[in-house]
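Handout, section 3.2

Students often ask what a structure token actually looks like in practice. Rather than define it abstractly, here is a full record for NADH-quinone oxidoreductase subunit H. The first block is the sequence as you would receive it.
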Amino acid sequence: MSVPVAVLAAPDDPTLSSFGRDPWWLIGGKVLAIFVFLVLTVLLSMWVERRVIGRMQLRVGPNRAGPFGLLQGLADGIKLALKEDIIPKGVDRVVFILAPIIVATPAFVSFIIIPFGPTVSIFGHHTPLQGTDLPVAVLLVLAMASMGVYGGVLMGWSSMSPYSLLGGLRTTAQVISYEIAMALSFVAVFLFAGTMSTSGIVNAQADTWFVIMLLPSFLVYVMTMMGESGRIPFDLPEGEGEIVGGIHTEYSSLKFAMFFLAEYINMATLSALCTTLFLGGWRAPFGVVSIWEGANSGWWPVLWFMLKLWAFIFFFIWLRATLPRVRYDQLMKLGWKVLIPFSLGWILLVATVRGLRNEGYDMTQVAIWSAVAIGGVLLLSIAWDLVKGDEDEQEPVPDHAEAEPSVGGFPVPPMDAPHYHGVGRTGVDVTQKGVARGTH
């Protein structure tokens, strides 16, 4: 019989019963503290990103506004606020104005269920270092992410621009594809923790972090959070090379700033959620606990949480400076043909192993046979891709040299057409091969 997580919790570990007892001024203080924390995190993330990418690309980065350029993000925010707010002619004004608000608001709401630390004393009141908690707190993050998608779609549709509309369609397809795989990566965590509340999930990792027991789920979440955030290498909704700027092409001033704010807050929220679900949340690393027993009490856990949070933010920045943008078909293939099937198979495996362990079976043999099954599936997948690639290479390539110049929509004739001559503006007659024939 499994013991509830609340019974296993230490005296300082928050549970669902710890919430809903704070006075109104403490609740308001928590909300204000989370809001200020997110705004400061955005400003600092922008500075760190530009400095780190500058160092990786042998550039200086911002170093003029304030000491070491620390005020560059604030200067950019003031500049956006003072710019002229342009609303193009023909747009749906109501939706055009509300869409950035719909994008930014869920980003703030999602962070309310993230635990920063254990129960502490604030002006004589014992309260958890967390805004609030729910029996289905993790699902709140998924719900807010879905609400943000509506804002992106409405931004693209209300702009009455083909580029913005394409960006909105890309946003919808990308978020749906990767949100399904992200939700599936949470299922194994729910099975091990026995709860969907974030405080209960952190309490369940008191002995072992879930990144050790559920490494495949962790890897799937890391890939899906990159697609969910819409940043490089998965910034297809913006696509400056082909759709100018995507959903925010027609936006300027504070409306564009709200979209920019939501992007960096989502990056912090995804990093904090990964820390909570897989890296023990606010709990100190194992080596620290063995040396210092009080590492998980008081205000010290806030430090461990911040270190893990900024490690993931640095990971976001590192990928942006390293990887190029992927093709859209590769993005969809990774989401639908790799991550979702793998997540479904992993959930079945985890549920089967836990069921067999509850029935008293030898887990060593179960683990061995599970590893053999996973290896077999991976080998079959690799063989299928190799066979499929060979079939694609054997397909006959059409001979474009025999095609008519006007067929196929090409504005120029084939490269090896021997009798094509043209006279340029300078009077030089050149062939398609670029060899000058003299003047007429």
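Discussion prompt for tutorial groups: The two ends are 96 Å apart (CA to CA). How would you have guessed this from the sequence alone?
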